């Protein structure tokens, strides 16, 4: 269902071959642990970041974007029209704004999620996939939810992310989060999936490639209790990319090289999934896998 109230709050930044949508969604469903909502006023959404900008002419012309001024129709070569249904991957960037997620010292999960999301966005778009980030700055997506009448910022946040996913209808949704544990030796990426074959296949491919990146051997797990996983209609997974409480994971997740390795693991997992599910887009480019 197309939820106008949600999409009215969305803005699109068009970049070559991909999209960043700012101004919707927010969630905490991803974490293995949930934190209480901070009873603080939400930060204002980063409105300056939400202005649509036109980009490369070859970029996707999404239904959110401003129409281009009409040109003299001499030899009209109509650009291919894309809609949001053309989106391959929606990256749900966990937390944001007043919701920092997991914490270790001064390090906040929301910042790790955003850094890895950006790297993943780059890795996927370089491959030719159409990708949407649901936040590209530090703000709470719950601020954009004016349509759900609840006092819970947390639920507004989750609902906004869910509604966005269901409106955009990407092929897959990947929600990025960071784990935390009292036991500081716990480490490694864990992929949580829905209880359906598509999500399981996606999670298996992602877990395999992330295991290879981090030299771990985890199996993906079903995430029955997670808001997003229960409510999104496309194959969706939550990736807990590592433990903020483990020094090795923390180093990898905060170092640009380590973040890039994680992003490449995700990219390769996505490619495996799209190949095996027969949904590889024609825009997909070949690449030399680098780790
Ligand atoms: Zn989280």
From TrEMBL:
Q: Which UniProt keywords apply?
A: Hydrolase
Source species, domain of life = Bacteria
BP GO annotations:
peptidoglycan catabolic process
Q: Which is an annotated GO molecular function term of this record? A: N-acetylmuramoyl-L-alanine amidase activity
Q: Please provide one cellular component term from the Gene Ontology annotations of this protein.
A: outer membrane-bounded periplasmic space
List the transmembrane segments. Answer: none
The UniProt entry, under Pfam families, shows:
Amidase_3
Location of the MurNAc-LAA domain: 162-271
Where in this protein does the record put region Disordered? 37-77
Record protein name field: N-acetylmuramoyl-L-alanine amidase
């Amino acid at each position: 269902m197309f939820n106008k109230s949600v999409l009215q709050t969305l803005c699109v930044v068009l970049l070559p071959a991909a999209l960043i949508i700012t101004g919707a969604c927010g969630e905490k469903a991803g974490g293995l642990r949930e934190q209480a909502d901070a009873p603080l006023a939400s930060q204002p959404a980063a409105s300056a970041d939400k202005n649509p900008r036109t980009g490369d002419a070859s970029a996707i012309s999404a239904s959110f974007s401003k129409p281009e001024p009409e040109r003299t129709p001499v030899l009209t070569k109509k650009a291919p029209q894309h809609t949001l249904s053309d989106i391959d991957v929606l990256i749900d960037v966990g937390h944001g704004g007043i919701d920092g997620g997991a914490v270790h010292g001064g390090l906040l999960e929301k910042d790790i999620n955003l850094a890895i999301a950006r790297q993943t966005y780059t890795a996927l778009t370089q491959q030719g996939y159409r990708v949407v980030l649901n936040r590209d700055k530090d703000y709470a997506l719950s601020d954009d939810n004016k349509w759900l009448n609840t006092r819970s910022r947390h639920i507004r946040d989750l609902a906004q992310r869910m509604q966005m996913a269901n409106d955009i209808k990407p092929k897959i949704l990947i929600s990025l989060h960071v784990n935390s544990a009292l036991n500081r030796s716990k480490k490694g990426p864990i992929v949580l999936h829905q209880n359906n074959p598509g999500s399981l296949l996606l999670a298996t491919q992602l877990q395999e490639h992330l295991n290879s990146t981090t030299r771990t051997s985890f199996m993906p797990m079903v995430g029955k209790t997670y808001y997003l996983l229960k409510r999104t209609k496309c194959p969706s997974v939550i990736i807990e990319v590592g433990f903020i409480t483990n020094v090795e994971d923390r180093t990898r997740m905060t170092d640009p090289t380590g973040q890039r390795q994680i992003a490449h693991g995700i990219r390769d997992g996505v490619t495996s999934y799209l190949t095996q599910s027969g949904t590889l887009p024609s825009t997909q480019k070949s690449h030399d896998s680098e780790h």
